[in-house]
Design a protein that fits this description.
This protein is of the alpha/beta class. 35% of the residues lie in helices and 25% in strands. It is built from eleven helices and 18 strands. β15 and β16 form a beta hairpin. The N and C termini lie far apart (76 Å).
Amino acid sequence: MRRILALFLFFALALAADRLYVAPDDGVGYLRSLVQHTKRELDLALYLWTRGRLDLAEALAEARRRGVRVRVLLDERPGGEPQDPRVLQVLKEAGVEVRFSSPLRFAHYHIKAMRADGRLWISTGNWTRSSFSKNREYSLVTDREDWVAEFKKVFEADWEARALALDDAKLVWSPERVYSVFRPFWEGNAKRRVLELIASAQRDLLIEQNGLTDEDVFNALLDAMDRGVRVRVLGSASARESNYFGRMAKRLAEEGAEVRYLEGLKVHAKAMLVDGRRAFLGSQNFTPTALTANRELGAVLEGGPALERLRATMEADWARARPALRPPRGPVPW
């Protein structure tokens, strides 16, 4: 009897565990399955959706036709261009409720997240063909009740263009800024949570990022190196000379950080591993806009199979990436 009970508890915990999905390795099938198994409500908050992922539009349309309430909240002009009209047409014809985020609320609605009944998808990637076939992206699927409830609350506020206090949130929300003059409150906690994670590192920080321009993050990484933490920074080979990543990466390399660039995949991920035991992943680039002006969502993982897979993937990417050449210091030894 005890053995049966132990097996039951093991499988119950396995089913309830967070699951990490890695792009391009895992493709898009798991996401279509998540939509297909939704029975009551589906809320999607997304920055960019192109016709390269029209299959996901059809999946949401089919969910609506079988009676699921489907709401989609999008950035109106991602990258300065309107959302794909073909995607919007498929959603509209099926009766999916679609709104654009108010430009008065956020600089960009850069979030990538979805609630499907009692499950929550949090991702670094948009719904484009390249996000699932050419990019390094990470996605977390969880049924943690407190996280699911928190996302539902924030989505409702964003749907109605209302501000919400999120300074003590369990998830990692941007924008972190003070809202209102008369009764001020913090709308997010992202920069504080990211800086706290960096400050907590004792041995090693591994950052795999698409964007790196925030000076507070830069200074926190310098402080980490000063106390003996190994700091590693990983980006796309194409970002080596970019102002969006390469410039600050070079500055960190000059201060003693290890910097490498990954060939063959675009690093669109936004992830940070702390001492191999804790990790951040989400939609936040490490830029001032992402942390303090956009709507973004991330999560902190501590232990479990999802963290272990993230650690293994990031370390594998690091191992096959090419080191950045550091400029020589002092006299050149000809």
